[in-house]
Design goal:
The protein is α/β, with parallel strands linked by helices and 343 residues long. 44% of the residues lie in helices and 13% in strands. The protein has two domains: 144 residues, 3-Layer(aba) Sandwich (Rossmann fold); 183 residues, 3-Layer(aba) Sandwich (Rossmann fold). The two termini are 25 Å apart.
Length: 343
Amino acid sequence: MPILRAASRRPWLRVTVVAASPAFDVLRGAGIEVMAAPSDEPSVLTFAADLVRSCRPDAILSGLSGQGRGIDEALVAAAGPVPSFALQDYPGDVNPGWGPVASTFLVGDTESAHLTHKEVAGVCTEIVGNVRFGALAATADPLAMRAAARARLGVADDRRVVGFYGQFLEIDGYWRTLEALGQALREALPDALVVLRPHPKESPARRLRALELLAGGLETILDPLDGEESVCAADVVTTCFSTSLNILNYFNRVSPHPLGVGLYLFMDAELVTWYHTYNRPARPPLAELALECREIEALPALLSKAAGAAEASRLWHETRRILAAPMEVADSVLDIVVGERRT
């Protein structure tokens, strides 16, 4: 959305926005005029080809589907000679889709560029900074967001809030990880409020199963907040490898005081194997700004450590040392796409 807002300030640009659910619902809810794309593979390929023929774009800017193939990859497949640009969310992520990849990948930093070149030799990369998280943090007031979010949750200042940020992983190791987290929370932080934020694609049945695995005596709720508010509200942000921890990192960078502590859950062998075979770097991005659990037995102690003020302060200082101050980078992306800064 930051790029769409920047494009609206350039009236000479004709922008056609297309998305499939759940992104379509988010964009439409934000008041953006958006075309609905199908989700099934045969239909989305035909849809994308017809759209490119009818719109005759000068450039195509897409994201990258997190799992599977979708409208992003279909547009690139249909691009032909039209310059195509893929905005990378996860360092080194290259979704081959139906064969052709974007002519240029817009990446966050030099390490992301290196990982991308490793996956696709000879591909063009442009370093633009973190568009998604940097733009959010550049104008955010994380402490005000935290106070408002915790008020909506109805929790006192001294009560711990633990968030789990789910993913649409159809492997048994995901559910074993959730079960282990619930057991460790009951041991280490029995008075915490546990907030489950499921992946948008997860069905009601999956959400209920996750709640049951996490609860078992703990007060556990579905997250009623926006994603950014939710991250600010939590004292401990847990996930397998969701990019939600990057939101926390960038908000921590601009916050005058420490926010919560991130904790990656890599205890299950099947889940770790899935992670490493899905075109990922060896560790999640900015993993040094969070804790990692590699053994189930260590999880209760790591949860207690993550909930402590000392660890929050340590990682806050590390974030300020490692991350550059975020800034609005959407205009730079547009300059590249429309050819004003293309290299």
